[in-house]
Amino acid sequence: MKDKVSDKIMQTHGSGKFKRSEFASLGDGVIFEYGVLVFHPENIMIGDNVYIGHYAIIKGYYRNKMKIGSGTWIGPQCFLHSAAGLTIGNNVGIGPAVKIITSWHVLKDRSIPILHNRLKFSPVIIEDDCDIGTGAIVLPGVRIGKGAQIAAGSVVSRDVKAHTVVTGIPAKVIRIIK
Q1: How many CA atoms lie within 13 Å of 67's alpha carbon, on the beta-carbon side?
Q2: Which residue among 54, 81, 105, 116 is the active-site one?
Q3: pTM of the model
Q4: DSSP helix/strand/coil, 50
């Protein structure tokens, strides 16, 4: 199957326009739906047969890498942030409107607005075969183990072991997948 991106120019707010050649690597069969925004494609590596849904924001960063494994499905309106580095394994399902964040403002100096305090960075790793439910939020520094399932609307603030199902705010284990 010929991929839909080839080297044609794609419109995006992030870098203005992007071409296949601007990515660190871009596999075959990658689909960018209408309205996808891509920032810093030079630091983004995408495997084969990856789907990126309408209006997703793929927020590469001027340093650190975003790696998206083969066979991964990213739903519409997702926000993937890689300021500290983001690794998504193979065959991962990421539901619509999921947010994955890798930085936050340090609450240190009360004399200036939080927005102007320095940033702190911590990478996120999502291992192979995971499923991240619609509207879930994955916070900085989290590692989600192979085959784990995150329920819709959950907020993941700490590591999730392989083959577990978590739900809630904050996300807690509700069962182990046998």
Answers
A1: 14
A2: 105
A3: 0.89
A4: coil
As a whole number of angstroms, the distance between CA 16 and CA 33 comes to: 16
The strands making up 164-167's β-sheet, listed across from edge to edge, are: 31-32, 51-52, 73-74, 93-94, 131-132, 149-150, 164-167, 172-176
Looking at domain 10-176, its CATH class is: mainly beta
133, two tokens? 């439910």
How many C-beta neighbours within 10 Å does residue 144 have?
28
Q: Are strands 172-176 and 164-167 parallel, antiparallel or unpaired?
A: antiparallel
pLDDT digits (tens, 9 = 90+) for 54-82: 999 999 998 899 999 999 999 999 999 99
- Six token digits for residue 153: 């609307």
pLDDT at 17 over 70: no
Q: Are 135 and 153 in contact (CB under 8 A)?
A: yes
CB 48 within 8 A of CB 70: yes
Whether 105 is a known active-site residue: answer yes
Q: Is 40 left (phi over 0), alpha (psi -120 to 50) or beta?
A: left
